[in-house]
Amino acid sequence: MPKPNFKLTPVHLILVGGGIFMLMPFGWMVLTSLKTPLEALRFPPTWLPEIWRFSNYREVFQEISYLRYFMNTVFITAVTLLGVFFTGILAAYAFARIEFWGREVLFMIFLALMMIPLPVYLVPSYMILFNLGWIDTYWAMIVPWMVNIFSIFMLRQHIKTLPQDLFDAAKIDGCSRFGTLWRIVVPLSKAPLITIGVFNIISSWNSFFWPLIVTHSDAIRPIQVGLAYFSREQSSNYTLLMAASTLTILPLVILFFFAQRHIIQSYIRTGLKE
Q1: Is residue 36 part of a domain?
Q2: HSE (CB half, 13 Å, CA atoms) of 205?
Q3: How many CB atoms lie within 10 A of CB 19?
């Protein structure tokens, strides 16, 4: 039986303390969701509620069309993720394994586009969608985000680490480029694909500013825009806002716990090989 290494105890204590500190806002959110409105505004604040008001979660569904917002978010996230996988796998394979003129320059341009913030291209993007007649439709919230440059970069770096012998063997066996992509690259890219999926799901799930700009009707708006109902100029219902936020973040927490092992593996295996 190996002896415990007490030299690492201070490091572990620091990590545990940091983890608890990072979890405190989430704990405060959950506990506030179980308080009464007056207790949530009390100063100095208290951690535990005096009256555990679980009815706040039922009131969320009465105040807003929460299920409608939730299903809109699920639909937008799922379709966007499929688009990211489709474009990301094809582009990454091309940048990693297909020789063509200007490949490296084009890839550098792609990476440079990541530094452009959303406000810079917000107005041109809105005008394009307006001319296409996509304002206040699902297309406006899905199509512009079906290409993710970071996903292309991560997949490209992973594909470059795959042994060349696999591709040579597939070519000798008469496998086409798409056959090689589907039978070799995709099965060996499970970890980075799961990581990309998690990151894009979180990004789509938490999207607020873009849907707020390109939509006008509540019928197609996602859940983050729906949460803004509880934070209005007249007053903010903090207990219902925290209850709705808890329901919203719960699927992401569950998703992360199931996928964290693959996320770590993708970072370990992908590297930055050129």
Answers
A1: no
A2: 17
A3: 9
For residue 118, being part of any structural domain is answered with yes
DSSP state of 254: H
Do 215 and 96 meet the contact criterion of CB atoms below 8 Å apart? Answer: no
Structurally, the chain folds into a number of domains equal to 1
Predicted TM-score (pTM) of the model is 0.85
Residue 1 to residue 187: CA distance in whole angstroms: 38
Is the residue at 251 inside a domain?
yes
Tell me the average pLDDT of the chain.
Answer: 86
Q: Partners of 236 in the beta sheet?
A: 231
At 144, the amino acid letter reads: P
Instruction: Find the mean pLDDT for residues 239-259.
Output: 86
Name residue 231's beta-bridge partners. 236
Residues of the domain holding 180? 63-270
Q: 226 pLDDT exceeds 70? A: yes
Taking residues 134-141, report their average pLDDT: 93
The H-assigned helical ranges of the chain are 9-32, 37-40, 55-63, 66-97, 103-113, 118-132, 138-142, 149-160, 164-172, 177-180, 190-205, 209-214, 223-227, 238-270
Look at residue 243 and tell me if it is in a domain. Answer: yes
